[in-house]
Amino acid sequence: MSTVVTPGLFSLVDVSVSKKTPYLMAGFAVFVLVAFGFVGKTDTVAFQWSKEDDLIHLPDFIVASNVVGLVLGTALVAIALLSFVLAQRKRVTPLWLTLIFGLLAVVALLAWLAAGNTLPFAFIFGNAVVLAVPLALGAMGGIMSERVGVVNIAIEGQLLTGAFLAAVVGSLTDNLYFGLIVAMIGAALLSMVLAVFSIQYLVDQIIVGVVLNVLVLGITNFLYAQWLSSDGQNSNFPGTFPIIPIPGLSAIPIIGPALFEARITTYLAYLIIPTLWFILFKTRLGLRARAVGEHPLAADTVGINVARTRFWWVTIGGLVAGLGGAALTIGAVGAFGRNMSGGQGFIALAVVILGRWHPFSAAAAALLFGFSIVLRIWANQVSPGIPTDFITIVPYVVTLIAVVGFVGRVRAPAATGKPYIKG
Amino acid sequence: MKLELRGITKRFGSLVANDKINLVVNSGEIHALLGENGAGKSTLMNVLYGLYAAEEGDIALDGVVHKFKGPGDAMAAGIGMVHQHFMLIPVFTVAENVVLGHEPTGILDTLDIETARTRVREISERFGFEIDPDALVEDLPVGAQQRVEIIKALARDAKVLVLDEPTAVLTPQETDELMGIMKGLATAGTSIVFITHKLREVQAVADRITVVRLGAVVGEAKPTDSAETLAAMMVGRAVDLSVNKKAPKRGETGLAVSGLTVIGDRNNKVVDDVSFEVRAGEVLAIAGVQGNGQTELAEALVGLRIPSSGSIHLGKLDITHSTVREVIDAGVGYIPEDRSKDGLVGDFTIAENVMINRSYDPPFAKGLNIDFVNREHIADKLIHDYDVRTPSQVTLAKNLSGGNQQKVVVARELSRELSLLIASQPTRGVDVGSIEFIHERIVATRDAGKPVVIVSTELDEVTALADRIAVMYRGRIVGIVDSTTSRETLGRMMAGATL
Asked: Exposed, middle or buried: residue A258 (CB in 10 Å: 0-12, 13-18, 19+)?
């Protein structure tokens, strides 16, 4: 017998808002101000906004590294103070402020790392988008499945399936679009297995997901070793989709080249993310799907077929994740490698949660992780002296701060992970 | 619309939940389905609503036999149902909940939420509901949520409306309002099936009464029949509905709670500055509509929730921050409101369940071992003393009926030296025979000079057992009154009115 909870009825606790966010911010701000400003490096940094061949070429912005540290450090201190004032007035620091804070802190770090060098913003941003696409698509697949109440641990396997099939079918048929379609269908079939086992046979969703991941990893590793590595020219050399600049939009300085000089896989992601949002929150289809994920019995009592809804959303989610897998191979590097997804499916799961099961927030979270991957690559090149592990953790620290800002407000669809058994 | 159920039989394994049940509900009639918990009322209605498939029997509407494959078919045929546990999605708005499953749409399958709002407003105005279509359901009080359920059924043109134990979560005043609504609907031509075990409500509102017992129809009764007659039909023997108890012999203060505040999961004060005292030898009942902080208060008293401020004294002993085991060792007996979740381990035997709170002490333990011989004796004795109907002491708790499960919990808690008894919903979902028994035991505990705290949402139980009544509303105690206070006054207090 469940207790009826009516939280809205009770008076709210009259305690001051937790000050952990302002204190954390203040700590970071002072660190940035001192380490990158007062005792920072005096060498100059060239902020490279545009690539050589951009239509509108912005000149590099050259400034001393410690000046950047001082300016940004001061700005961070100001934001931290603002956060204190908000907490004093019993208001929570808004997320966008936290995000700006994190962004500025990261820029200050970059300026310090790049002292005596150039800071290629165009390169970093552009690659962050490319790397975020598979994560974002994987996350969209995850959202579709979790919104109807099925935990999808198998995103990793779906990405890997998509990556493998796209490369191999694309090579063998010499048609990348064919490879793309087969990749999506393959991942969707994998998703169907998850759907059937968890919905029809009520097997624990986590276990099915893990088994599928291991299965796909094993099969692709085997085929790679036995076949692709010796016959790479024929079966694993698909090439990549051409880069299509969008006229007009791609001429916008800084963001144009990063966002609108991309491959079809990226553009499909741009299409899928808002479409998913629209379907989930604006249509009958989405309302029913969310009802199934929140309270399947209630959905059943108004005549919605819970099993069928879950089955199709999970399957179509696989289709989307398969596209993400294809983006790893024929949308980026042009060949399949052993364990190509390398845990990105699990990062996509984190993206789903950080994005609170919302397509737009998840896309932003994916971009954050994409950014962190590029940063690691770039920092390795410019500052060999600094332990790369240190650089690598910075974006995650930023993420953690962002999550702290959310605490208590993240709520998964109520029926996620729970099988629905009809009486 | 005239509803006929002909010879409905529904089995779960070897258990016959419904045995050839016949029921006829005429158009515009309020037909009460009266029976004890577990008599098969809800099962029958779930068959009617297409949630369960019956093994035998027909459902006919206006003489036409229908076969329902699912709730969708039943709704299309004009059957609406307000479930005991609401079928609403907490994070959706009222309008979204009402149209779910038959949504008005525009181009591209978009939701036409404006039409949905209008529909909610129309029905609200017609029956005087005052429901905001854009409110989130989780923010509404329970009574309002129930109206949303009724709107949901009416929005689909339900001609037959089934209400499954609709008053369980309502204050007496809300119950009266609901009965007014039911009469209004019936006058407008809706046939209503009213499922309940409360005699008072049946007498107040029903046109005709069908009594079910152990899955079968016992007979028909008239609302003018006396409560004793109805109770006897429902239970199968004469029932004494009153609890005999002498005036309390109050002793020293047994439990003193002062300024107790408990913060809930959503940063709200679920228990808000609560103070009261219970003397030895008296029963204090905490009354109130479900979900007003009583559960949390009881859990705080036994150490399951940590209070953020205030104090709890058991005699001279401060147990505010004691662990659950320290509270048990101090002699506090606790009957939790949800026996299957908190009171028993379903997959343990009766014998294992009766030792579960004293597993580390004699007589159940001998050093590091369980004293099996002693346990067997004690379990047999308790089964006998507390009249637990079971084949043996090694029967799993989950295989007992609700009433017998509750007797096991009561036996465990009362079979040791107590300094305080806290009983939360001690007779919820329990058959009348067991209710009488459990009530007797609680009164006996009081008469043995122990302080007793009862938490109950059943006003009948509160007035029958209590020496004093504290009414909780939104986490606060509205007032502490004498047990002779009228139902009307208590009802107003349950809705938040101070004295």
From this structure: buried
For residue B106, give the chain A residue with the closest CA: A283
Q: Does B69 touch chain A (CB under 8 A)?
A: no
Strand partners, B81: B162
Contact assessment for residue A111 and residue A65, using Cβ atoms and an 8 Å cutoff = yes
**Where does A196-237 have alpha helices with state H?**
205-223, 232-235
Domains of chain B, residue spans = 3-235, 242-331+417-499, 346-415
Domain B3-235 part of CATH 3.40.50.300: yes
ipTM: 0.82
* Interface membership of B292 toward A (CB under 8 Å): yes
Mean pLDDT of B96-121: 91
- B100 to chain A, any CB pair closer than 8 A? The answer is yes
Cβ of B71 under 8 Å from any chain A Cβ? yes
Tens-place pLDDT, residues B15-43? 788 999 999 999 999 999 998 877 888 88
Dihedral angle computed from the Cα positions of residues A163, A166, A171 and A176, in that order, rounded to the nearest 10 degrees: -130
Phi-psi region of B138 (alpha: psi -120 to 50; beta: other; left: phi over 0): alpha
Q: DSSP letters of B225-257?
A: S-HHHHHHHHHSS----SPP-PPP---SEEEEE
- Report the run of H or E that residue A361 belongs to, with start and end: helix A359-382
Contact A11/B91, CB-based, under 8 Å? no
Q: What is the pLDDT of residues B306-364, one digit of tens each?
A: 999 999 999 899 999 999 999 999 999 999 988 888 899 989 999 999 999 888 888 88
Backbone angles phi, psi at B140, to 5 degrees: -85, 145
Going by pLDDT thresholds of 50, 70 and 90, the confidence category of residue B455 is very high
Distances (CA, A) of B387 to A16, A248, B54, B327, B364: 54, 85, 34, 28, 21
Q: Which residues of A touch B49 (CB under 8 A)?
A: 301
Domain range enclosing A300? 136-402
Could you tell me the two tokens for B363?
């007589």
The neighbour count for residue A401, using CB atoms within 10 Å, is 19
A147 at interface of B, judged by CB pairs closer than 8 A: no
Is A310 inside a domain boundary? yes
User: What pLDDT sits at residue A6?
Assistant: 42
**Nearest by CB: A303 against B70, B109, B475:** B70
Tens of pLDDT, residues B135-162: 999 888 777 888 899 999 889 888 999 9
Can you give the pTM of this predicted structure?
0.80
